[in-house]
Structure formats: C-alpha cells, structure tokens
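Objective 1b: paired records.
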Amino acid sequence: MGFKMGIVGLPNVGKSTLFNALTRTAAAQAANFPFCTIEPNVGEVNVPDARLETLAEIANSKQIIPTRMTFVDIAGLVKGASKGEGLGNQFLANIREVDAIAHVLRCFEDGDVTHVEGRVDPVADTEVIETELMLADLESIEKRRAGLVRKLKGNDKDAQQQDRLLAAAQEVLESGQPARLVEVDHEDAKAWKMLQLLTTKPVLYVCNVGEAEAATGNAHSAAVAEMAAAQGNSHVIISAQIEEEISQLDAEEAEMFLEEMGLEEAGLDRLIKAGYALLHLETYFTVGPKEARAWTVPVGTTAPKAAGVIHGDFEKGFIRAETIAYEDFVALGGEQAAKEAGKMRAEGKGYVVKDGDVLHFLFNT
C-alpha cells in the first residue's frame, strides 16, 4: 500500500534541496530494502521506527525491512498556476495524485537567495499556494456540475450525491476557505474522496530555517506554527542546509554532527514521522528468523484488511490473527515466552489492529 506526500512550495524556498537530501538518505539506507526512484522526481524513504530493530534483535531476524513513504518533488508554483502560468497545469495534476501536501516555506533570511515575491513572509507564501489551489478547485467544480445536468434531470442518485457534495465544496471555497473544512457524513466519505479536490489534501507546513536556527526556530517559524495551530494543521522545523550535509555522512558521523548542532534527530526523520501522523497511519510488525518487517495501515484497519496489505490471499482466506502487543513481546523476550505467559491473543475478523502489534496471520488458501 503506497502513501504519497507531495513536496510543494514557491521557487527558491529550499524544496528541491530537501527532496535531494531525502533521496540521498534513502539511497544510503538501501542495504535494508531495494531503493526505488520511480521517476526523477519521486523517491521512497524509510519511516524511522526504533521498535523494528529491537524486535529484529530479539528474534535474531536476518533482515530488517522498514515500512516506506513516497515523496514527490512537485514543480515550483507561481501566482497564476490555476490558469496555467509557469508549470501550473503539471503542478496541479501532480498534487491530485498525492495523499498529503508538505508545504515548504522559506523561514530564512539570505540576501544571496532571491525570493520570487521579493520578501520573506512564509504566512503570505501559504496564501499564494492555497489561493491557486482554491481557484483550481472552483474551476473544476463548475465544469463538473455543468456536466452533471443531464444526469440530474434523470434523477440519477450518484449524480445527485456528487452534485450535493460539489455544491457544499463550492460554497466553502467561494467564502475563501479550503474544501477540507466541509463537514462530510460517513455515508458520503467515499464519494467525497473520489472528487479529488486539491484543497481537501491534509497539509504539513515545513519551516525551512537557517542552520543556526534548526534547534530553536525563529520568528518566521513561530508565525507559521501559530497559523498551523489555528487551521488544525501541523508544522515541522527543518534546516535544508543541515539535511543536505547530513545526507553526505555515514550514520556515526551524522549522529555526532546532530549532537554538535543540538538536535536529537535529523529533521528529515521528523518530517517523515509528521507525514505519517498527518495521514493517520500506524505500523504493525511481522517478526521471525528470516525477517522483521514493518507494515503501514490506516488507523482503524481491521485484521483481515491488515493481512491483505501483505497479500490479497491473506485477506480472502483470513481465519485469525495471532497478536502480541509490542511491549509484551519486548518485555518477555519474544514470541514463545509471550505465548507461554498468555500474552498471545487469537483475534478474529472484527479485531482493529493497534499500532505496534506483532501479528501472525492464519488463512485458508
């Protein structure tokens, strides 16, 4: 199951520097999994999770396979993108294909790096991109609603539902707000998602600060934090300069460098974790002598659906899931000890997987 996060931003905000650091870091991790650059602007990275190494050590697993997230470096946006300015059409098409947006904002002062708007104001920068996305959504909605007229006259129920949702989105957008603010009922959730409106994508603001401000942030990143909190979105502070330097180092050198900078972990790790949380994802594990592996599922996934992430046959023939909580697996020293202590549970089709579960699926072929 792939999850894509699009990296967007105005020109010269450090977006591509961050993406390049991400992909170089991923390439350095390739001993653990086949690194895949699908296109020049797409890269897959590990989702950092210290629990996986702990489980592998306990089970003497020969291989460690982390779960992954895909990052897409989307062409820089300028005013007028909704009307095709710059690489506008390509930009908008690429955003439709991602699950969430990492919006990189310039929060650093540097006279040698020109800002496209001639000033450093990250909050205003967010408004440029949000406005373009809202304009694109409004244009799309108007075209779609016009195309539904014939079906609506024929009382087509799907068309009625689609038109009702589009009308709700249009009303919010015309008030100057993104479509993600529309309250959608559970029975409309699937149809709403199928609309693929740009402003329904969850947003993570990435504050790109100078090297000296990586640990503390600055006034610009504080303004973004306040804005994100008011919107119900999240933010992360990163120095693209530092991340680029770290991507060139081995693990030991990187750890020493981070310590010198007063940082507990690389900003890219925090970015990946924040993206994972933004998409409401969680991890379960399969552990054995051959491999310890992490699997990504949305929060609220049932055991059969979780099994289906491994293979469709696991979901179709699902019988039960033998389940051990991560804490019990570690505290008792492995599967057998957990089983003997009565900490292994047999869970059926209705079981909702919890973050950190160590699972073994039984199924009919």
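Objective 1b, second protein:
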Amino acid sequence: MNSPSPHLSRSALCTAALAALLLVASCNSLQKQTASPAPPAAAAPPPVSASPAAPAPPPPVQPYDMAVLSAATALFTNAKLPPAGAPAQPKYPLVIDPLIDGMTGAQSVTTRSMGRRLTDLMRERYPQFDVQAFSAANVARSPLVLIGTFTGVNAERKTAGAREAYRICFALADLRTGKLVSKGLAFALPEGVDPTPLAFFRDAPAWSEDPATEGYIKTCQGTKAGDPINPLYLDRILAASVVAEGIEAYEAGRYSEALDFYNSALAMPAGDQFRVHNGIYLANWKLGRVQPAEAAFAKVVDYGLVHQRLAVKFLFRPGSTAFMANAALSSSYPTWLKIIARRTGDSGKCLEITGHTSRTGPEPLNERLSLIRAEYIKTRLAQTSPGLDKRMIANGVGSKQTMVGNGRDDASDALDRRVEFKVIGCA
C-alpha cells in the first residue's frame, strides 16, 4: 500500500480538515436527534400526615381499696400547686367538699368513708396539705378544695344498664386561681362497696336537677388539670359549705341545728338549691312541725316545676300499684300528692308522669308495671285537682332510665323506682 505523499498542497490539507470537522458536527447532530429525552425530575413524595394518636385506654378495674389508693396517689403526686410560701415546709390549706354519687348527687356510706380515707392519707403521706373542715369560714379563705364522684358504670364504662364497676374521679381545685390543679381517676370492682345513702339522702322525698350539684359533677368529670372550675359550682360553694354542715347535723339527729343551717343557706345569694328545700322539709318533718313541712314540700314542688323535672320517691309494693305498707315511708304520700296536684294546678303547667322500675324482673313486665303506676298517680292527682286531668299524660319506661342501676331493690336504688313529673307543652 502506498504512503501519502509528504508534499500535499496547503489547500488539500485545509480541505481535508474542513471535511473532518463537518463529519464530527454531523455525528453530534445525529446523536442529539436520536438520544432519548432525560426523564423529568421525580416529584417529591407528598408529606405523610401523622395519624391521630389513639385515645389512651381507660384504667383497669381494680379491687376497691387499690382503686381508691391509685386515684388518690395520682391526685396528690401530680398536683401542680401554687407557689410555696415563706416557711421552709409550706402547708396548703385544703377542705374536702363531701364526695357524691356522680348520677344522683347523693352521699353514701362508701363516699363518706372514702373522704375519711383521703384525709388520713394526706396526714400520713402528704404533709404539705393542711386538711381543714369544710365550713363557710374556711371556704372564705380560698383554700384548695378536693371533690370527688363515685359512679356506677356498665361493662362499657357508661352510666346505663347493669352497673358492673364504679368510676372514681378526684379533682383538686384552687379557689384563688379558679382552676383545677390535679386529677385522679380509677375504676373499682363492686366488692366492698356500700352504696347505702346517708340518712339525709335516704329520707329526701324528691330529686331534681340542681345547678350546684351539676357544677360539682362537671368540675370533676370530663376535665383535666388547668381547666377552670365550673362556674355553677364556684358561685355556690360558700352556700354549699353551709348545706354540708346542715347535712352533718341531720345525720347526727340534731334537727333543730340542721334547720338553722338550711335556713341560713337559703338566705345566701346562691342558697336557692334543691337540697336546701329538701333539708328544710326533712328537718321540720322530724321536728313534728307539720305545716312548715308542708310549706317546704310546696317549695320542693315549685323548684321541680321551674326546672321542668321532679322525681318523687313513691315506693310501691312489688308488682302492684299499692304503696308500701311501711308507714314510716308511705304515711306522707297523701300529703305529697295533694301538694303536687295543687301546685301544678295553680301553675297552669302540663305534665308527663313517667313511671320507672329497677331492673329486677322481665323488662316487658317492668314497662307495663311502670305505666300502670304512672296512671295511678295521674288518677290520684286528678281527684285533688279535677281541672288537671286534661293537662297530664302517663308513660312508663320500665328500667330503661335507671339512675343507680345496681339492681339491689333497697334504699340504695330507690330513685330507680321513682315517679317522675316532667313539664311539657300544653298544645
């Protein structure tokens, strides 16, 4: 093969160089046309939203003594107390507003013993608290206030149906700031619990929704530390301390003293409370003062009519519309019926009379029995106030709306066997 001549002309070299450049440019152009386009940048994945945290499971059901200790320990150890005072070991004045049933507002043998246990526990293990009497003088100094509810619940932890456990709720409130500083919650087994109401609540003839009690319950239940004290409770606590002293005197059989406390409470700005009217009736009745007792029961009825709901503890013989033969219980029933008829007749209001039963026995029978008892009460009222007959209807709900629900059929669940009067429209 012949070698290229070293003597090529300058023009030939230039021509060759130009051809080479054109060839490279053509190849580059071809590569750009045939190359696949670059994929677009991958889009950033959407932010993953955090799933809402599942609600914390309720505390387990414990033996009664353990449950009380558990709730109390949480209450006292987690308390966010106000700034300490000058002394090296400050004492925080504290009063206990008597613990109550979270549905009825009644104090029982168990709630009273629970309050005493809390007092002992503070004195033994929590010396920073100076436990004082729940009195008007002490409340006026704006101490810490311990309140608590003890409520029967079913297997789903609700206040309906058969109660299988008790919910213990403690709250510690600071009257100076108007806020809660701690909470304690536990669930207790029914063994060892005595739900028998104290004498005042056992003897009380009627029940109605009372703002003072409602505020107490709402302050304890469904709240957390830092929440404000319910104003219904805060505005009435001074009168509540006088009522508590009246209940204590009644429990001790000091009826004249109890009457003085109830009348003193009634004279206070926030003293128009349902339990005050119940107390004035009970004390007068125990003292044999018939006319003042009847006047007080009229106030009980008026209060219920204003608040559109009044439950009266008319107790019947089993399976019957006849009142119980126990004179200590039923001797006052004719007087109650007469006053209810007259006060309702004078008010011009219309009523739905609803019978209730405990959950003992078949529910269809309970519904029928509750209805005929309501019809019996309706007939008795119409006999006293004939014009009232056309302004009343009767209804029976059996055991569907129990307030206690323990099925004991004794003094502890008397309100489950109530006859209820609800104000309805007259159209």
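The radius of gyration is 38 Å. DSSP finds 14 helices and twelve strands in the chain.
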